[in-house]
């Protein structure tokens, strides 16, 4: 009962925290866009998707925002790094460039080749990108980034924060057991009492390592090798490292800040993009020639983005709930495996003495009967 209550409380707290922050992000987007004057590209001749992205990146790149102890920094958004690096003429240096496995649209599988010209409609160097449907492609980028974040956090819940070959699964299992069962070193080489639980726990450690090795956007090994970062006092200096690896004081809140930061800039760009294309004859695929067709095409992209934003919020909430359940239930699972081994060991030992005790019991009950 207490276990279920704890899970419910943690789950509701995390989801409500995310939902509250999402509400704050959404309510602040209009104000931020007004302050940064990025609502609209005024010159009709400049109204292309390429210039739309370029204008956004120029305006927001150095923007920072603090709300309710949450840090939002455009320069520390992996999503913006990918978006702006592929389009922005002045490609500024991003602090995460060294920790990214993918940076180009083509690496994310984003391309639309024109059958007539054989040009990639999503390549800013050869086209104005008007035929590139960002409502279809940008969610691919955000989803892969968010998936990496949740995989890294899940591995952290298992106590795995390294993919180095020098870090043995036995050591990771012992660190985990000493954290939750302070009296116990699960995989003690001199004591195989919990041998099966040790093997099971090492398998979990190996599986968690695979999660870290299979990240698609974040180079976890490079990120984890960072040194001398004070996440308690300088969290805002490296949100990604502190949110995923380094902050041991408030790990859950720090992790959520990483998610908030990505969602914030992703949502801001979607709002900006949607505002510009909705009911507009500009920014449309040149395949459509009439004004009605161009407006309909843009509105389809607008509605597609709106639906995917809803799906993204739902998926993040579900993922957060899953992490909260792992956080509370996995140590209990290991504890029950230990209990199962204790019970099996007890039954094996009991079998050795049960028959003599049973025989003695019968004799004591019938001690006056001559045989």
Plain-language structure description:
This protein has 371 residues and is mostly helical. It has one domain (2-324). 61% of the residues lie in helices and 2% in strands. It has 10 helices and 2 strands. It has helices at residues 2-36, 49-60, 78-87, 134-157, 169-180, 195-213, 220-224, 239-246, 251-277, 291-365; strands at residues 64-67, 70-73. The protein has a two-stranded antiparallel sheet. Helix 4 packs antiparallel against helix 6, helix 5 (169-180) packs across helix 6 and helix 8 packs across helix 9. The longest helix has 75 residues, at 291-365. The radius of gyration is 28 Å and the shape is elongated.
Short description:
61% of the residues lie in helices and 2% in strands.
Q: Give the % helix.
A: 55-70%
Q: Element order, helices and strands?
A: HHEEHHHHHHHH
Instruction: Kindly provide the radius of gyration, computed on alpha-carbon positions and rounded to a whole number of angstroms.
Output: 28 Å
Q: What count of domains describes the coordinates? A: 1
Structural class: mainly alpha
Layout of strands and helices, then pairs:
Elements: H1 2-36, H2 49-60, E1 64-67, E2 70-73, H3 78-87, H4 134-157, H5 169-180, H6 195-213, H7 220-224, H8 239-246, H9 251-277, H10 291-365
Antiparallel strand pairs: 1-2
Helix pairs in contact: 1-9, 1-10, 2-3, 3-4, 4-6, 4-9, 4-10, 5-6, 8-9, 9-10
């Amino acid at each position: 009962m207490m276990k279920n209550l704890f899970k419910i409380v943690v789950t509701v707290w995390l989801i409500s925290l995310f939902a509250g922050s999402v509400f704050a992000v959404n309510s602040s987007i209009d104000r931020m866009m007004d302050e940064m004057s990025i609502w609209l590209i005024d010159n009709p001749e400049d109204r292309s998707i390429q210039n739309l992205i370029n204008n956004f990146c120029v305006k927001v790149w150095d923007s920072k925002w603090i709300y309710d102890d949450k840090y939002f920094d455009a320069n520390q958004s992996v999503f913006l790094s990918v978006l702006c690096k592929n389009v922005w003429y002045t490609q500024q240096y991003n602090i995460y460039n060294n920790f990214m496995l993918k940076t180009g649209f083509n690496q994310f599988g984003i391309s639309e080749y024109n059958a007539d010209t054989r040009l990639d409609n999503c390549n800013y160097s050869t086209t104005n990108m008007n035929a590139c449907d960002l409502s279809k492609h940008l969610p691919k980028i955000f989803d892969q980034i968010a998936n990496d974040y949740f995989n890294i956090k899940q591995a952290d819940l298992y106590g795995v924060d390294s993919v180095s070959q020098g870090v043995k699964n036995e050591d990771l299992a012992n660190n985990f057991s000493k954290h939750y069962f302070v009296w116990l070193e699960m995989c003690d080489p001199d004591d195989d009492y919990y041998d099966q639980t040790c093997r099971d726990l090492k398998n979990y450690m190996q599986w968690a390592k695979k999660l870290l090795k299979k990240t698609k956007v974040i180079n976890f090994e490079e990120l984890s090798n960072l040194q001398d970062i004070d996440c308690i006092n300088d969290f805002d200096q490296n949100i990604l490292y502190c949110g995923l690896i380094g902050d041991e004081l408030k790990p859950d809140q720090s992790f959520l800040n990483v998610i908030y930061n990505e969602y914030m800039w992703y949502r801001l760009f979607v709002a900006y993009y949607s505002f510009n294309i909705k009911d507009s004859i500009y920014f449309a695929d040149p395949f459509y020639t009439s004004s009605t067709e161009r407006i309909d095409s843009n509105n389809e992209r607008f509605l597609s983005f709106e639906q995917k934003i809803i799906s993204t919020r739902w998926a993040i909430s579900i993922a957060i709930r899953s992490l909260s359940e792992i956080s509370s239930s996995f140590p209990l699972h290991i504890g029950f495996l230990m209990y199962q081994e204790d019970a099996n060991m007890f039954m094996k030992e009991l079998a050795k003495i049960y028959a003599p005790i049973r025989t003695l019991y019968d004799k004591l009950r019938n001690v006056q009967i001559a045989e």
